[in-house]
Amino acid sequence: MSDIADIIEGKQQDILLLCDHASNAVPADIDLGIAPELLDLHIAVDIGAGAVTRDLAARLDAPALLATVSRLVIDLHREPDHVGLIPHRSDGHRIPGNDGVDRAGRIARFHAPYHRLLAGRIRAQRPKLILSIHSFTPCLEHGGTPRPWQVGILYNRDARAARPAIDWLRGQGFETGDNAPYSGRLLNATLNRHAEANGIPSIAIEIRNDLIGDAAGIAQWSQTLAGLANSLRNSLARNALTAT
């Protein structure tokens, strides 16, 4: 484990797994000024996403990179100029320790090296598919409405992996959001930079976090995503053959 990411190696180099919000860890020298129990909520970590990513990496024997700092310290899945990069409030909870923070210092310590690590890994591995694993809360605490989807597929302009992924998940009987519960055209920073910019098919997979809050749910969803990954391998290979 590095200071910014836990790296899992795997033999199947055609797929790379990412998990930007895998951890709720806060470095000892950073005081967010919040109650400790808030670190267990969705505002601090994508609940279950890290565990699903690890299990999926084992099932696929695929490499994975999992961030090791809480999104309340800095959101690695945002561009450096994004207003929510270092949140001052999240789902109604104030984060007073982020008021007046050295923004450039946090970027240099966490954000920039994390994205350099991803870029270097992708150059070395040259994956044919990138899957980014996230989770979402069934309903926001403040001003939210219930989110009925079990899983959502997020993407920007490149839909090569998204369209077959949505069709496959719906075919398995899952209530699947198409760029929902939020749009990848607005929130897709990591994949925009490291996948779409390099011409690599990719999707962000958002699992509703109440479905992966225990070992049984984690195992079920990692098994489901292993099936999805293999289906995408086949569909992308067919499309590549058709294009030649």
From TrEMBL:
GO terms for molecular function: hydrolase activity. Keywords: Hydrolase. This is N-formylglutamate amidohydrolase. It holds the Pfam family FGase. The keyword Hydrolase applies. It comes from the Bacteria.
